[in-house]
Amino acid sequence: MNGKTTKLLVVESDEALREQIVSALTDAGYEVSTNYREGMKAVLAFNPDAVVLGADPPQLDCCDLLSEIKGSESTHDVRVVMLSRGGSAERTRGLDLGADDVLSLPFDSHELLSRVRSQLRPNPRRTSFASACTLPRKIETILSRW
């Protein structure tokens, strides 16, 4: 992205799975951090271009973290690829909560890399979650004055 090293934050509690993800991403040339224990503070500190978000990180609610990332003015453009152990209901929930993509577990490393590249590709038609929520907030403010 723009000649700089692309930074990815991996939020995954399963050590073996985390190592597999980190290995695939670093081998592909990405700068990767796994320091996620502070939740949103870690996202703000590392300033990643994308987050690979496991469905069950310890001491964090992945859905809350996803909502925080997508709802914050400073991070709403961070792309999120969510990992899912569940079926279509869990994948759909992740997408409805704002994940940009959901990858079912177990996964192929080539597919993970392809999905990450897809999310990092510039797309001028992409509407951020935060901007999509702006209009309803304005309407709510106007209506509250009546």
Share of helix, binned? 40-55%
Mean pLDDT: 83
Please state the second-level CATH architecture. Answer: 3-Layer(aba) Sandwich
The CATH topology annotation reads as: Rossmann fold
Q: What is the CATH level 1 assignment?
A: Alpha Beta
- Strand runs, count: 5
Structural class: alpha/beta
Summarize the structure.
This protein is an alpha/beta fold and 146 residues long.
Fold and architecture overview:
With 146 residues, the protein is an alpha/beta fold. It has a single domain (7-144), classed as Response regulator (Rossmann fold, 3-Layer(aba) Sandwich). The chain has helices at residues 15-27, 40-46, 62-71, 88-96, 109-120, 129-144, and strands at residues 7-11, 31-33, 50-53, 79-84, 101-104. A five-stranded parallel β-sheet has the order 2-1-3-4-5, with helices on both faces. The longest helix is centred in the C-terminal third of the chain and has 16 residues, at 129-144.
Key phrases:
5-stranded parallel β-sheet; 15% strand; alpha/beta; 46% helix; Rossmann fold; 146 residues
Ordered list of secondary-structure elements with their pairings:
Layout: E1 7-11, H1 15-27, E2 31-33, H2 40-46, E3 50-53, H3 62-71, E4 79-84, H4 88-96, E5 101-104, H5 109-120, H6 129-144
Parallel strand pairs: 1-2, 1-3, 3-4, 4-5
